[in-house]
Design goal:
This protein has one helix and eight strands; from the N terminus they run αββββββββ. By secondary structure, the protein is mainly beta. A three-stranded antiparallel β-sheet has the order 1-5-6, with no helix packed on it. It has a three-stranded antiparallel β-sheet with strand order 2-3-8, covered by helices on one side. A hairpin with a 2-residue loop joins strand 2 and strand 3. The model has no long low-confidence stretch (mean pLDDT 89).
């Protein structure tokens, strides 16, 4: 018989992971990244637009969603105050600045003071064990 994690264990595991090495940081990136098990922070070019700063997501206690532990942070807002820059995805860092993970957006976003000035990002962490 395989080791089974009940729902209460799934939420406890995710809560423990989200509090370890907190506070987290959310950052945007501008280059094409092929996300995989060998991806490192050096593969990523962080956004540099005027007004840009990494954000600090706060994850609430995990709940069970589709038989997995899940926690969604409040919306993270990134606002450009001058110029233009195209961003293609986001990534998470732990409190020591280590890369935790990331993903590309389904389409790149052009932030432009004359057009889209704010990118609102929702970050969800999901425990992958069913």
């Amino acid at each position: 018989m395989a080791f089974l994690i009940p729902n209460v264990g799934k939420t406890k595991r995710l809560d423990a992971a989200l509090t370890y090495k907190a506070p987290w940081k959310t950052a945007l990136y501008t280059n094409a990244v092929t996300w995989g098990t060998a991806t490192v922070l050096g593969d990523i070019t962080e956004a540099t637009f005027t007004g840009y700063a990494q954000t600090t997501p706060t994850f609430p206690a995990a709940a069970v969603v589709s038989n997995k532990g899940s926690s969604t942070a409040a919306v993270q807002n990134f606002t450009i105050t001058a110029g233009t820059q195209t961003v293609v995805g986001y990534y998470l860092l732990d409190s020591d600045g280590n890369l935790v993970g990331g993903e590309a957006f389904s389409a790149s976003v052009v932030l432009d003071i004359a057009g889209i000035t704010t990118l609102a990002l929702t970050v969800t962490q999901t425990e992958t064990t069913e």
